[in-house]
Amino acid sequence: MPPPIPLYLNDVVQLRKPHACGGDTWQIVRLGADIGLQCATCGRRILLPRATLERRIKRFVSRGSAGELE
Length: 70
Known about the structure:
Layout: E1 12-15, E2 25-30, E3 34-39, E4 45-49, H1 50-56, E5 57-62
Antiparallel strand pairs: 1-2, 1-5, 2-3, 3-4
């Protein structure tokens, strides 16, 4: 099993499938067992399990700061 991908608050990720609004970029707004994401296009917030999110990430658009863990 590969090690977990380091995720930080305010990371912006592009996911493999687009959201219903047509956007495919999401900002990480919550960390934990479930990762909170906010759609950059429509502002919708969702929670995904970390393992699911790691499979769906296509690329990082921008990275947040490693010091912003809260």
